[in-house]
Amino acid sequence: MGEINYKAFEWNPKLVDRYNLAGPRYTSYPTAPQFHTGFQSNEFTQALINSNASSAPLSLYFHIPFCAKICFYCGCNKIATRDTGRCEPYLEHLFKEMDLVAKHLDTSRPVNQLHWGGGTPTFLSHEQMRELMSETRKRFNLRDDDLGDYSIEIDPREIQEDTLAMLRELGFNRVSFGLQDLNPKVQEAVNRVQPREMTEAAIVQARQLGFRSLNLDLIYGLPHQTPETFAATLEEVIEINPDRLSVFNYAHLPERFKPQRRINAEDLPSPDDKLKILEQTITRLVDAGYVYIGMDHFAKPEDSLAIAQREGRLHRNFQGYTTHSECDLVAMGTSSISQVGPTYAQNDYTTESYEEKIGQGNFSTIKGMTLSQDDIIRRAAINQLICHFKLNGDLFSEQHKINFADYFAKELNLLKQHQADGLVKIEGNQLEVTPAGRLLVRSICMVFDAYLDKNTLGKAFSRII
Q1: ∠ CA(347), CA(139), CA(337), 5° rounding?
Q2: Pick from 27-41, 73-87, 205-219, 318-332: least confident
Q3: Distance from C-alpha of 348 to C-alpha of 77, rounded to nearest angstrom
Q4: Whole-number percent of the chain with pLDDT over 90
Q5: Whether residues 21 and 85 fall in one domain
Q6: 301 and 170 in one domain?
Q7: I need a surface site. Which of 78, 405, 455, 465 has the fewest CB within 10 A?
Q8: Does 119 score more than 90 pLDDT?
Q9: What is the CATH number of the domain that holds 426?
Q10: Measured in whole angstroms, how far is the alpha carbon of residue 391 from the centre of its chain?
């Protein structure tokens, strides 16, 4: 099989209808429902210690769960307040959590990736942001050559004139701006009024300051969206010209997420219209020159994400697609998930429980898991498929000391239906996802998932598309 043309994409309505079932997003394997409460902080502590032998670089994630105003579609773990003073106790506990990590980790390991997510990290005052970065630098080996990926999520409505300059000074070099939709009626329905000029001005300023890989987040499936209105938003977004785009599917789950109860279900687009919006979006962005990275992500061909995919270096973790597969991910703050060596560890969801445990000098780990050798092998296979749309079974056999055809005999047999339907090509030990299969790559990955219970799929996961 030759080189994959990552720009090629094909929408097949019959296949979409047949394979659009519930399934994981594979930001991890095994997926979060497999994490268990038997995994506790002592195991996470040991994982940190064990990871030092590899001398692998680090990826640090900080969860800042504060927002000034709630967007009605939001399903994130956050606290709505306008009082930045509410952040002070939380920040103090973040510093203590860093101390706990630093006690067990070789802190000379370089931090090649750093990310602040939320919530809205820029809800913090400038002084608080400076302090958080300063305290991080005291404890970890942050790069000062601007070659790492230091990113932050930003709500353009919540920044001041000099915020971006201050963030650049702190060492951030990548920014993700929330946008969601530019239609005023949609914006009002989800309580996020954000004129195009506001977003565009922030992107222009970020470019002038030397930020790279500027990302915009969009959501399809919101109230009052139609294929026509979202197509209009997309044309404006293409004019704004971000380096990357994330286009997420809105899942309406008011029973789980209280803010969504403010959204009238009757105003949501029909399932057919949602699929039409997605088809138009992928087709238009690919026509505009973006590479369909996979799932909900797009990037310009010269962006590091697209380059990493072409060169076989792309990876997927809890922040989505990343170019840093070699890093141990240490995540701090409420609900955050670390991936250190063969372990996953998740922190407490509530700030009260998180602060109580950290205040007592303990990690706030509530669940996680240590991967078996089979988990590690399957994780590698799924990562190859979801990031690169191909799997070289001969090379995989060498890397993992297995016989690919024997090890995955059951899976290869199950893939015969995908093959017959034109989603995947299989020649010997070589698997390649076709342009028609890229949209449905999660369905192909699910074949390699040893944990899936077909009876509970719909309860644990949203639909693939």
Answers
A1: 20
A2: 73-87
A3: 11
A4: 81
A5: no
A6: yes
A7: 455
A8: no
A9: 1.10.10.920
A10: 22
Structure tokens at 275: 């699929």
Same domain for 20 and 74, yes or no, is no
Do residues 369 and 379 make contact, with C-beta atoms less than 8 angstroms apart? no
At 127-186, the pLDDT tens digits run 999 999 999 999 999 999 999 999 999 999 989 999 999 999 999 999 999 999 999 999
Instruction: Kindly report, residue by residue over 381-405, the tens digit of the pLDDT.
Output: 999 999 999 999 999 999 999 999 9
C-alpha–C-alpha distance, residues 354 and 344, integer Å: 17
Nearest to 390 by CA among 57, 55, 8, 82: 8
Token pair of 206 as six digits: 């970020």
What is the rounded average pLDDT for all residues in the chain? 93
| Rounded CA separation 323/170 (Å) | 22
Q: For residue 408, what are the domain limits?
A: 1-30+372-465
Entry field: residues in the chain: 465
Beta strands in 319-395 (DSSP E): 320-322, 328-332, 337-340, 343-347, 365-370, 390-392
353 pairs with which residues across the strands?
Answer: none
- Do 90 and 73 sit in the same domain of this protein? yes
Torsion, Cα 117 123 124 125, to 10 degrees, reads 150
* 235, part of any domain: yes
Least confident of 8-12, 189-193, 200-204: 8-12
CA distance 235 to 156: 20
pTM greater than 0.90 (yes/no): yes
Q: Among residues 362, 351, 365, which one has the least CA distance to residue 100?
A: 362
CATH number for the domain harbouring residue 205: 3.80.30.20
Residues 71 and 8 in one domain: no
Residues 103 and 15 in one domain: no
Looking at the structure, do residues 10 and 36 belong to the same domain, yes or no?
no
Which of 303, 331, 359 represents a domain boundary (last residue)?
A: 331
| Count of domains forming the chain | 2
* Torsion sign, CA atoms 219, 220, 224, 229: positive
Q: Any bridge partners for residue 371, and if so which?
A: none
Hunting for tokens 């067990």 — which residue is that?
Answer: 104
Secondary structure letter of residue 162 according to DSSP? T
Asked if the structure places residue 195 within a domain, the reply is: yes
Query: Is residue 408 included in any domain, yes or no?
Result: yes
Q: Given 299, 331, 363, which residue is the final one in a domain?
A: 331
pLDDT tens for 325-367 read 889 999 999 999 999 999 999 999 999 999 999 999 999 999 9
Please check whether residues 5 and 40 belong to one and the same domain. no
Establish if 360 belongs to a structural domain: no
**Cis peptide before 227, with omega less than 30 degrees from 0?**
no
- CA–CA distance, 389 with 394 (Å, rounded to integer): 16
